[in-house]
Amino acid sequence: MQQLAEMGSEQTKKTLVNHGAREPFYGVKVGDLKKLVKPVKKDQELALSLYESGVSDAMYLAGLTVDPKTITREQLQSWVRGAYWYLLSEYTVASMAAESPYARELAMEWIRSPEEMIAACGWSTYANYLSITPDEQLGIDEIRSLLHEVRDRIHEEQNRVRYTMNGFLISAAAYVKELHEEAIAIAEAVGKVHVNVGNTACKVPLATAYISKMAGMGKIGMKRKTCIC
Questions:
Q1: What is the pLDDT of residue 229?
Q2: How would DSSP label each residue in 13-51?
Q3: Model's pTM, two decimal places?
């Protein structure tokens, strides 16, 4: 924690506040956090305690270092409840959950949550799960049903839920060959998704354009080795 405090800066804090971070946190750049991954990975209990600290920088570092194969369902439930802004919910917890043995069941549970950050985490977890799981291990009918939900409800959902539903749509088109064409049709029907990104330069990717770009690079159906980053 002392190292993290020394690595933080006021300028980075100001930037992260614009994105939704709040105290306590030190303002450490993600690239600098990654420099601490190797030593922290040697101590699983240390990694877990970093998340429990409630300090955003430490929580993000924990997500880069905890072993997703040994983390428990109860710990993931605790993590999602503590993920108070999107960097933690949509990236730290979602990527960790996606590589855990509880990926699909927790994604489906969280998607149904009335709490914005938890629901957003659910959609992001499932999107990440699609990116690393062989198609033959996926429930195609369930994914298709979720795609239909995206088509019918995305524009009426809570702010960050809209963002992650859009990400799920892109992920289904990019990583699940059987659903590629259907996902493209839904992306065309959905069109532009509007998300309030606050005082930041962030943009919501247009699903049709993003999918087309991946297709042009020959990446449709190519799975990732990991979604933790």
A1: 84
A2: HHHHHHHT--SS-----HHHHGGGHHHHTT-HHHHHHHH
A3: 0.95
